[in-house]
Design a protein that fits this description.
Layout (H helix, E strand, L loop, with lengths): L5 H11 L6 H11 L5 H10 L1 H15 L3
Length: 67
Amino acid sequence: MIPNTFEDWKSCITKGCKIKLTKNYAKNRLAIYLDIKNKETQKFISLYGYEHLKNIQSWFTIIAEQD
């Protein structure tokens, strides 16, 4: 299942994948997902689509900018 909301995605990452969504982690992932030429980003698009990439970019930005 591909999460459609921030809360679903956050739950999937933190509970399902057991990944801590720290600001540092979010910034590192965001750097990859903002680089459209990055091979990992290209693979992500091929698997999940450009629309979901935009969601992920937005959601990682929320985490990266939290106080």
